[in-house]
Every structure is written in structure tokens, then in C-alpha cells.
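Q: What does the assembled structure look like for these inputs?
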Amino acid sequence: MKHLLSAADLDRTSAIEVLDTAARMAATQGREIKKLPTLRGRTVVNLFFEDSTRTRISFETAAKRLSADVINFSAKGSSVSKGESLKDTALTLQAMGADAVVIRHQASGAPHRLAHAGWVGSSVVNAGDGTHQHPTQALLDAFTVRRHLVGTADEPDGVGKDLTGLRVAIVGDVLHSRVARSNVQLLHTLGARVTLVAPPTLVPVGVEAWPCDVSYHLDDVITDQQPDAIMMLRVQRERMGADGTGGTSFFPSPLEYTRTFGLDARRMALLPEHAVVMHPGPMNRGLEISADAADSPRAVIVEQVANGVAVRMAVLYLLLAKEREAVA
Amino acid sequence: MSSGTVLPSDDPRGSASPPATGSEVLGAPEISRALTRIAHEVLERNKGAADVVLLGIPTRGLPLAHRLAERLVAVEDGLDPDRLVGSLDVTMYRDDLHRHPTRTIGETELPPGRPAGIDDAVVVLVDDVLYSGRTIRAALDALNDLGRPRAVQLAVLVDRGHRELPIRADYVGKNLPTSVAERVRVHLVEVDGVDQVRIEHGDGGDSRAEVAR
Amino acid sequence: MTGTEHLLRGVAPLGGDPTDLLLADGRVAAIGPDAAARARTDARVLDAAGLVALPGLVDLHTHLREPGREDAETVRSGTRAAALGGFTAVHAMANTTPVADTAGVVEQVWRLGRDAGWVDVHPVGAVSVGLEGRRLAELGAMAHSAARVRVFSDDGHCVDDPVLMRRALEYVKAFDGVVAQHAQEPRLTAGAQMHEGVVSAEVGLAGWPAVAEEAIIARDVLLAGHVGARLHVCHVSTAGSVEIVRWAKARGIDVTAEVTPHHLLLTDELARSYDPLYKVNPPLRTAEDVEALRAGLADGTIDIVATDHAPHTREDKDCEWAAAAFGMTGLETALGIVASVMVDTGRMDWAGVARVLSSTPARIGRVDAAHGRPIAVGEPANLTLVDPAARWTVVPEAMASASRNTPYGGRELVGAVRATFLRGRPTVLDGVAVEPGEHA
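A:
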């Protein structure tokens, strides 16, 4: 494996291998000494064209726990409109000798270009591109689901297992969500059944080709399907009203959204006892998720963050700790 | 991932097909006798086994550690098997990761009966073959991150020579002089379905996988 | 007009029976057995056996980028590429810098074309001042300038204001002009990057829905019918658009439509590569759309093929998809693609190719006094010779255009331009450009 660009790059076997490796990594993170010498001498560049402190810190922590050298390259604002192009930035990184580039970019496909345009020879990890993919988020979500719903007393992380038979509801702004796209693919690959729940305005045209069901009614999905996990997506503020550029809102009002698609105490009570509540963060409390739901014992939102480090350690390990390829 | 291939997991130690070539140097009875002898040496040297922790190095060091523990428990009264055996994966401490396909990471698990870990214990590292010494160097580093044992000792089923580091074994089942071109294959019932140690005449190119042992 | 006479031996006009053609004094001087007899002794004899003669190709939709973006293309480099593609006339779109919205700019482009000498350059005039869609440009002044503009278009932008569109359609009737509409409802396509459908949903690029094109075409054909004006629809790209044009023609509305070579060949699946070479406006559509376009071209619903040749510099394409410019080059590959997807598949004969790439575009652009003429004695010697059997592979680096943004690199095409004659003078011989002045 050279790059991780999309959840679609992972088949069942390789997805399970990443999750199992992450379980081993997570086990080391309970120790007093968390740092491993595994990637000593390797250089990981965090190339962030878009603000995301939490994702950057998660990748940075993962790389440092594996003893890699980390260079943070915040390129926000220096992308297309002014200053350096992605290509020139890439050539700079190549000159610095980056072994892996972790890229977050507002343009869908930018990591794909970085990996395949011939600009760099490094491994490329997609840390979120536009409205396309965020594969490590999907991996950490799958890791969290597996640990809670598949793990046993003997094997708490569910090592070696997939998610066959589990039902997962993903609720909210699917249209603009790379988290939803990645999760639909990965959860399906791992055998889970996914239902997307959103107002029709926030479901993309072409969704019929995705391996999932689509519903416009959250209460029906909760009652009829009794999902084992429910994942609430962040609703971007700018989607709610006129966006100032003549755009039109995707739903009438925040209040109506919350009433129809928000996870609150009443809906929590309708979920099965074992169901876990997830959110990729940052949350809009009171909009897509109420404080009751976010702070309930069934919410695994903080744990998702911790699992993010283990999953990213696993991805960096699998990308970088291997035979160096002959330079062509 | 996007290379289109499934992640490789061809750990050379994980291949489990009994060999058809080469010659057997140890059979099941010899292996059993060697382990029994090592168990007695451990007890003798440490004046019992009260503080001893056997840490097997996956893949084949782990079943060997379990077999040694059985023998210790059988000989020495009052030993708690739950405090005796653990596993120590050294993959993430290797200095030769870039020379191999991606290695699957094994499990590190301290004995469940020892919540305090390995501090002040006598750790006996258990592995199947001692070769370059690099695995043991990685194990010492891994151990370092887990705690501070009072002493660390090394037990191996086979010592085939060709050390690249100043490391020696405290307990050796069999010294086996070999050439670098040869491979030593240890097969255990728990992993491979059969107990035997064989020497194969490698073609040199493949023997790189053995260098790190 | 005097110069070298050319005797083309064994050539097949429109793919018919082989014969001899004598080109003299800028005209077709003789056809058939007596052509050789009537040739001067110093006439150049060309063995054209196996070649098909077509009237010189006419492109109704070319971006030559000059003035303003001479780093991407100039009138000289673009028209040389056109000649190599078999063209003898091109219509240069108005979205230059400054915009071709005055008599001054269109005359400048026209003169640059004349001075370059590769093809006849007919400037397209902007419909609205600065392509801004607010008020009419000086359509009459452009029509009556030396450039004699007959085609008006805000191409790159849609004339989305229905009142402005109505006025433009009406106004150009006075000088037999036509409005060529870039049909794209702007509010439905804000930020759009590719065809909206299964692929866009997966790759996360903002969708350009088919309805944004079809809604404008539907409105425009109704407007054209209402005011009795001539409408031309640029780069039709969807099956639905073909249906609307078919319906409008059945109603007797005076509408013509064009399709580009790339919409006849490529699909939105290519966007999965995120390679901006495949980013174009209107976007590449689905395989079903491609099939509907081919069928529409074959049955005459779509009148012509136009290249929408849109050269861009390296830096405008060697970047992430969203940052890249829309458009692809097309002059040098147009004939090969039409031959490959229409002739080689048996859907169209060479007379059909002459219709969609020469006579009909010439008539729509009102340049049919000189171009798109029958191959007959006395007609202007604007001719293209095609080797219908030649297989060739597109090499971007070998293109004559100043830009390299062809999406066909490495693709094999059937049918190659071997020679082009502009008023009897060869601009291309043996597939190689003949610099003006090389031959008297």
C-alpha cells in the first residue's frame, strides 16, 4: 500500500488489517511510555490547506508516538487564489524529503492529484478533501463501532472481525459530507448495513448508486430499524440560511431541522439500549445533537477522538514501515 | 489501498507449511527434552521461579514460553501460572522494518496476574531461534518501555550463531552450527501442527528474511 | 489570383468514385478525365489515391485567445492548428481580453487572421457588453465592420436574462445574424465542476445538472419561435437537449445545434481521475448522453460538429480539479474523432461529414459564399483531403496549438487530414503545415 486516498481503496481484508493494527497501537497507548521507535528517521508532513486543528493534532500525535519527524505545513489561504500552487507546495515537500504527506484540502481530489500527478514520490494520506473523502475518520468510526458492538470480554477490540449484521444510521448533511461518503463505503465493506437519513435537499443526486438505504424520516429509521449505532453529521452554519452570495438555504430554519433531524432525549429513548451515539465533531450542540444526547453514557464521541490517534498510527505504520520501494 | 493490492502480511515467521526439503535436526522428543532441561536451569539459576516472568516473542516464542511455564509449574509448588507467562511483540522496535514487507504486529500482553507489570521481576525472554541478535535487541528496547525488570535472561530453542550484536543466550536448547546460506526452520504443534527443527539449504537470496532473527 | 496549380489524382470527392481535380487560380478548375489535360505543364501533381476530398472544414466555435491570453494561443498558432485539422475557416469566440464586443476588437481579430493566412478567421461578436449579460453590445457596428460579424455569442457565459435574450434574437434579424447561446442556467450551476450524477456524488465534485442546460434551451427555442429569429445552440451535451431541439425543429422553429467532438466520445467517468484535462464546460456527460448525441447528429437533429477548441496554459491545468480552467483543445483532433465515432462505425458517410463539419456550419455562420461549397467546377478551392484508413495516435507534445490540454493523448483515432487547401493554396501537405510563402 502506497497511499490512503479513499475508503474505497480498502477491501475487507485490508480494512480489518488496519483496524487490527490500530488495536495493537491502542494497547500501547495505555502505557506510561507511549512512544514507539517504529518510524524513527521518517518524516511526515502535515499539509493543511484548510483549518482543522483536531485532525492535524491527531495525525501529529500519531506520527510522534511512532517517533517520526513531523513537519506542520499550514497552507491555508496560500492555495489557489493567492500565492503558491498545490504543485509548487508539493515540489517543496519533495525537496524536504517527506516520506508521507498528510493532506487536508478544500478541493475534492487534491490528495488524488498529489499522489498521481507525478509531483511527489511520498505516500499520501487523505485527511479530508472537499466533499469527497475522509478515510481515517471512517476507519476510526469503524474501530469505535467494532470495539463497542463486536468486542468480547476475551477480545475487547474485536480483532479479526468485521461488522456483519450491524445497522448504522448516518444522519444529516450527507450532500456536503466527506465523512458520510467514507463511512458508507467502509461500513459496507465491513458488512454493516447503512441508512442515510437527511432532508432530500441534503442528499446528493446519484446517491442511488451508493451501497446504502436512504430515508427522509429519522423517527421511522430509529423505530423500525433500531440501529446499533447512530452517527450525527455536523450541519454547516452556512447551509442554513441565505449565504450572502445569493445562495438559497437547504432547509427552512435551524429549529425545523432540529425538530426533524436532531438527536434529542426523546429519540435517545427510542434507540436500543446498546446503541452508541457518534459524531465526527465539532458538534453544534442544540442543532443536530442535544446536550442530553452528546453527554449521555452512550455517546462515544470523546472516545472517537482517542481512537483517531491509534487508527492514524496504524495507517502511518502500514504505509511507512515496509520495504522501501526501488526508486524508479 | 490505492496501490490496489491487499496489505501484505507475509511475515516470514508466519508461514505454516511443513517443509518438504532439508533435513530434520530436532524431533518432537528432542524438543521436549530440551525444554525440560531449560526449565530446570531456570529454576536452578534463579533459586525458584517466584519472581520469574516468561515473555514469549511471537510467533513461535510464545508457545515455547507456555511449554516452559507448564514445566515450571509441574516442578515447583505454589507457582501461579497467571503470573508466569506473557507475550512481547517487538515488531515496532525493529531496526530493519524498511528491509521487509510490512510486518503484522503481534500482541504484547503481560501476565494477567501481575497488575504491577514487570518491575523488579526476572524476565526470561523466550524465542525459537537466536541468530543475528537483532530481535533480542528490539525486545530489550520494548521491555525498557514496559518497566524495569531486576534482570533479563534469554532462552532459545536453537542458537545458530552468526551474531551481529553483543548478545548471548542464558539457556539454549541446541547449538546448531550453520552457514549463512542455510535456513533454520522451527515448527511447533501450536502453530504448524508438528514439532521439528529443520535445516534447509536456502539459495542465499531468500535468506535475507532470516537475517534479523 | 495566380499561383501553383495543383492536380489531385485519384481523389474521391465526398468518398465517391475516384477522379482527378485541378485546382487553379483559387478555384476548382476541372474535374474528371480532362483535369490532367487542362493542367499547366508546371502544375504540381499530387497522388491522392485513397484520399477523400471534403470541402474545407468550418468551425463555428473556436477560442483563439488573442487578444489577451497569447500565452495560451494566438491567432497565428490557433489557425495553424486549424489548418492541420483540415479547417479553412474558423469562428473566433468573443471571450477575449478585451472582450470582442466592439467593431474595433472584431476587426483586430479579423486582420490578425488575414495576416496569418492559415484559415479565414470570422470573429464572433459578444451579445452583451463585457459578456456581463446586462446590455446589448454594439451588434450592428460589428455586423457592418470589416469583419462582417454574423454570429453573436457570450460563450463562456449564458445570456440568462430572458429579456436580453429576446432583444438580441430580434435585433440581429436586421443583418441576418444568429445568436449562439451557451445554455447554462447560472443559479443551478453555481460552483459546478462536473456533470451531476452518480460519479459526482461519489467523487464529491459540485454537480452541473443536465436540467441547467435543457431549461435554457427550452426557453430559448420558445423565444426564437415567438420572435421569428434564428437561434444556434452551442455544445449540446445532454440527451434531454437533443429531445428539445428535435421538438423545436418539428414545430418549425429556426434553431440549429452543435455538438463537440469530446461530447461525442468522452464521459463523466473520466472525472474519477481528477485530471483537469477532462474538466470542460458543459461537462462530460454519461454514456447514455453520448449515445443520444451520436444518434442526434446522425439523424440531423444536431446540425453540426464544432470544436469548442479551448486552449489553456500548463498552470491552468496542472493543478487540483476545482482550481483548473474549463476546456480542452480540439481543432487538430476533431476530424479524427468524427471519423472514428461516426464514419468508422457506419453511422455517417463522408457526405455527412462534409455536411456537419463544413456546409452547414458555413451556412449558419453566413460564410457559405466561400466555404462549405460543393466540390464542383468554378467553386472556391477550399478543400480538405482525408486518409480515411489512417490510424494515428494523439501525441499532445506534437500538437501545433500553443497549448497541450488535449484529453486524447495516447488515444488512437481513425482518419487523418493529409492536405488542406485555402483558395487553391496548400496550407497542409502530407500532414505537414506549409508556411505561407513557401509556395507561391
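The two ends of chain A are 17 Å apart (CA to CA).
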